[in-house]
Design a protein that fits this description.
Layout lengths: L6 E5 L3 H12 L2 E5 L3 E6 L2 E6 L1 H4 L1 H4 L4 E6 L4 H10 L3 E2 L3 E3 L2 E7 L5 E6 L1
Length: about 120
């Protein structure tokens, strides 16, 4: 069996506000929307933001941590954009292939940013 990268689903109170955060920080662009959800893409990563009653699941349900990998030469600038956009950003750490940092977006969704 071979797994392929699929969509990352996130449940948020306000998909428009969340979409703006991901646009500012990572350059995601909207590709579809119906008013209750917005689908965004950057490169081969697709993020689907659900709102309304579905958005309440984020506050009540389990948290997810997902990885976002970027080239190392863009790492520092991306960390600064995260801070400027209101993300909760942890300490930058190193590993044999580069650097990483854990952060939570303004809705509390946790991510790991990997630069390598």
């Amino acid at each position: 069996m071979e797994l392929r990268r699929g969509e990352i689903n996130a449940y948020v109170p306000d998909p428009g506000r969340s979409a703006e955060f991901y646009r500012q920080v990572f350059g995601f662009e909207p590709i579809e929307s119906d008013g209750n959800w917005i689908k965004l893409r950057t490169g081969n990563v697709v993020l689907l933001l659900f709102g309304g009653a579905e958005g309440e699941r984020n506050a009540k349900g389990p948290r997810m941590t997902a990885d976002l990998a970027i080239p190392l030469d863009e790492f520092d600038a991306t960390v600064e954009r995260l801070r400027a956009a209101g993300a909760q950003v942890g300490e930058v750490e190193g590993w044999e292939r580069g650097r990483f940092v854990l952060f939570a977006d303004p809705d509390g969704i946790e991510w790991e940013l990997i630069g390598g």
